[in-house]
Amino acid sequence: MKVIFTLILLFCFCFFTADADNSIIPDTPAGKKLSEMLSIIDTEDEARVLAFIRSFDPSFLEQFSEEEHRDVFRQLRERTGGLEIIEVANSEPHELSVIAKSKKSQKSLRVMIKTSTSDPFALTDIGIRPLDSAGGPKQQKTPFATLDVPATQKRLDELLSGLVPRGLNGAVLVAQNGQIIFHKGYGLANREARIPINEDTAFDVAAATKDFTHTAIFQLVASGKIKLQDPITKYFPNVPADKAGITIQQLLIHTAGFPAYSGPDDEVIAKEDFLKRIFSTTLLCEPGKKESYSNPGYSLLAAIIQNVSGLSFEQYLKANIFDPVGMAQTGYVLPKWKPGQIAHTYGEGKDRGSTLDFPHATDGPYWNLRGNGGTLSPLTDMFRFYEAAISGKLLPKDSELVIFRPDEELELAGSDGFHYFVYSRSPVDGITTIVATTDPAVKAPAVRSQIAKILKEQT
Q: For residue 454, what pLDDT is reported?
């Protein structure tokens, strides 16, 4: 599944006590771009920010609009107060990974930056992720500033209704302190049939599927059926020597070395053929050495879930995640969706259909997509899932396995370039925002940014 992975801002950083030293940034093309980015985060000069964004490699720049990229840097400046470098984790001429800390909160995070390999060495990717916060001190909770719900609903509806003529096609859900206060659809789920988007409309939630896979793996670990340090040779025969040491943990955190994609989402490829392909693929790096986002890594995790549980991937999710949480309308092929409930995706003037229109096996999508994307779900179901995952309800109470923590700020996003899904959560004000859009004329990240401004004004 193609995923827009520009800056997933998960501001849930653990405390780091080392002194920062930006002088340790290496004098490489990637290092120079990182230094430039640090100064851009610090500045409020919009012209400088815009010039920096316009220097991105075209393939990177076109993933989001200029305004969306600018909003990311605004958020970084507001939330971190700037970044200071603690240590260099991995350095190559055109790829750099460092540990940094927020000047505002003194919390630590990993920053990754990549450039093209030829002059002028344009930026091709930026990633900012929290370090594992296990064992770190918790953020202090602050009282929620209660929203004026009628006023907020009115402002949001005015905003979103005004975006419809510009191409908004999607739905928005806003909750505070666990209670949904706004949920409404805009545009059409099926333009030819004139079916409107409403609260029941199911969207492709893209990379959020990985959160289901991650949860399922942790459940199997908690039950003693697998271990995070198990090598994949325990679950698959004929693993080549260069991949024999890859562990489940490395698949989960994208350090196994597999490439981003194994083939088109809609390719008809059976499990065995997928395994042969991915095991014959040249690794991008030695397992465990560096992070490289990988969809096929999560398809391998889906295969492990099937091998260990004796169920299809979707059957396992239904029995152990969807049903316990009340997500009756979420899945690949098992839900009984109503006619017109699944949103079509649009782009380039074409009706691209829905993900359910892709070729499917009897038990779900084929293996380039299974486990890493393609799940269909209404926003209410996704709200239920993240509430349950954050509160720990999907794992044993004494489990130390944690994907999301109640005190962490989350910004999760996924897309195939046409449909977009964004989940946002702030523990400070108790506000959760979920946006799904199905036409790149107006993308979910941009919608969420405008919603955030309204919510900030209201609190």
A: 92
CA-to-CA distance for 365 and 270, rounded, in angstroms?
10
The DSSP call for residue 261 is -
- Rounded-to-integer distance, Cα 86 and Cα 21, Å: 6
- CA angle, corner 126, sides to 123 and 132, nearest 5? 160
Three-state SS sequence of 182-204: EEEEECEEECCCCEECCCCCEEE
Assigned token pair, 3: 């995923």
Three-state secondary structure call for residue 290: coil
Crossing angle of helices 66-80/46-54, nearest 10°? 120
Nearest to 440, CA basis, from 57, 2, 142: 2
- CA pair distance 99, 109, nearest whole angstrom: 6
pLDDT in tens, 186-236: 999 999 999 999 999 999 999 999 999 999 999 999 999 999 999 999 999
Specify the 3-state DSSP secondary structure of 356. Answer: helix
Buried b (16+ CB within 10 A) or exposed e, 130-153: bbebeebeebeeeeeeebeeeebb
pLDDT at 108 over 80: no
| 411/430 Cα distance (integer angstroms) | 14
Cβ pair 172, 435 in contact under 8 A = yes
* Angle CA 34–425–446, to nearest 5: 65
Is pLDDT of 70 > 90? no
Q: What is the Cβ-side half-sphere exposure of residue 186, based on CA atoms within 13 angstroms?
A: 28
> Do 434 and 423 form a contact (C-beta atoms < 8 A)?
yes
8 Å CB contact between 246 and 228: no
Token output for 397: 């109470």
Question: How far is residue 282's CA from residue 169's CA, in Å, rounded to a whole number?
Answer: 40
pLDDT > 60? residue 132 = no
